[in-house]
Design goal:
CATH class: Mainly Alpha
CATH superfamily: Mitochondrial carrier domain
Number of helices: 10
Strand content: under 5%
Radius of gyration: 21 Å
CATH topology: Mitochondrial carrier fold
CATH architecture: Alpha/alpha barrel
Length: 256
């Protein structure tokens, strides 16, 4: 639904209900899950890489374990630093997902992968759109981790708030990213998929609103997904900390 909203032409404002009806009418319920396997597999790798990279970068920056006293700007910097490793995971998986969702006649994932590689503008078409994906991840994860800690300090539903804020900030870049990747598999000369050209075309056709088409659908998904993601992260860290502490902490000397 998010991709369908983003791909709607200028002047077209499909609502969530109408999109649901259209997809189900044309393809059945299974159409709602087209292209789900690539982002599902990617999500597992993405979250692992994102949280691990963020923790590692915080160590490199010398940030304290007690994040309640860490400046939010430094937390933004550590989050933004995850863009490079994360985009190496998200760029190819989202490229395959986008191609499958835009080209409804495409068959298996193998044929989609072959299509992307064979018809890409570069020798390895699977890398098409990596730059704009990295820019989106930088915009998203910098705000994501900083707003999570900030909202925790304000006693808000931290994970959901972080997801919504992160997507709101990075959504225009995601719109451009989806267009770049959707156009990248076309034969050379068919369309100009450069980042600046795609952004200019979007603005010319729909103004600033074009960069936020489909945001409502994304935020409806973002709040529960990211609330659950951070809840799972905090639980895992709590369990791991309690299991590791007895191992790394020296045993007290026995009383004489």
């Amino acid at each position: 639904m998010q991709t369908a909203s983003e791909e709607a032409g200028a002047g077209v404002r499909p609502g969530i209900v109408s999109l649901l009806r259209q997809i189900v009418a044309e393809e059945g319920v299974v159409g709602l899950f087209r292209g789900v396997y690539a982002p599902l597999a990617g999500a597992m790798m993405e979250n692992s890489v994102a949280f691990a990279s963020n923790e590692y970068i915080k160590v490199l920056l010398g940030l304290k374990d007690d994040e309640s006293t860490t400046p939010l700007g430094m937390l933004w910097l550590s989050g933004a630093g995850t863009a490079l490793p994360v985009s190496l995971v998200t760029s190819p998986t989202e490229l395959i997902k986008t191609v499958m969702q835009v080209n409804r006649g495409t068959g298996s994932y193998y044929s989609t992968f072959k299509l992307v590689v064979d018809s890409g503008a570069r020798p390895l078409g699977i890398t098409h759109g990596w730059t704009v994906t990295a820019l989106r991840e930088m915009a998203f994860y910098g705000v994501y981790f900083a707003s999570y800690e900030g909202s925790k300090r304000g006693q808000l539903t931290a994970g959901g708030v972080a997801g919504c804020v992160g997507w709101t900030i990075s959504y225009p870049v995601d719109i451009i990213k989806s267009r770049v990747q959707a156009m990248g598999h076309l034969p050379p000369g068919t369309a100009d998929s450069r980042i600046a050209s795609v952004a200019a075309t979007l603005y010319r056709r729909g103004g600033f609103k074009a960069f936020y088409r489909g945001l409502g659908t994304t935020l409806i998904r973002a709040f529960p997904v990211n609330a659950a993601t951070f809840a799972a992260y905090e639980l895992a860290m709590s369990v791991l900390s309690s299991d590791v502490a007895p191992i790394i902490s020296p045993s007290p000397e026995p009383a004489l």
